[in-house]
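Hi there,

I know you've been waiting on this one. I reran it after we fixed the sequence typo, so this is the corrected version. Both the input and the resulting structure follow.
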Amino acid sequence: MGVEVCLPTRWELHLPMSICAPNRTGYVFSGHIFMTRPGRQQELLEEVQKAQSYGISTICDPTVMGLGRDIHFMENIVEQTGIQLVAATGLYTYHDIPHFFENRSIDFMSDLFVHDIEEGIQGSDTRAGIIKFATDEPGITPAIQKVISAGARAHRRTGVPIITHSHAHNGSGAEQQRLLEAEGVDLRRVVIGHAGDTDDIEYLVQLLERGSFIGLDRYQTRSKAPHFSAGDKGARREANVLFFLNR
């Protein structure tokens, strides 16, 4: 589980899982809980427990279709740790979409997202409380635009907030905002994820000025992704965090 986005406590959360208590959100982080290799369950349990030791009581998990979402595995982690978990619906892809969706409408995809939110995920009673989609280095392709539109329409029908994966180096967070706004989304209900991968403070301020929250995250990946945090750039990224904390 890589901790990603700290959501301010004033951000209104939709907590639909029966094991969540809306009056007990505490500190909230976003992180992925999924199996990346056999035998990882014990490691994940320990990481969740470590997060709890720092006061984290709720995790918003943006793991969706395309990222290996397994709601039953996630429920098992919750049962063993007592962590509150807000599950996600959506589709994670960088360029194309699965063949199943290619010749089906935006509204068809949106209906599936709404089903996760209102009925339950993967045949369970656990309902999604956030919507997730991604844009990365390829930018917003026609297929990705379809996913964004489907997510936006599901948001408008349910009121569930949106968290994105963005590629800060091509400014895709701003493009996400543009498309979401065109679909009638209130940008104050959106977190632009991975925005802090850049040291461009002007870009980050522009995202905030349009009303969204931003994800300043992946600082723990210095050894795995040195292009995020090497040398002066890493120092400037870390300075950006202090800049926002002191505003």
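Quick highlight: The beta strands are 3-6, 27-31, 56-60, 84-86, 88-91, 130-134, 162-165, 190-193, 213-214.

Best,
R. S.
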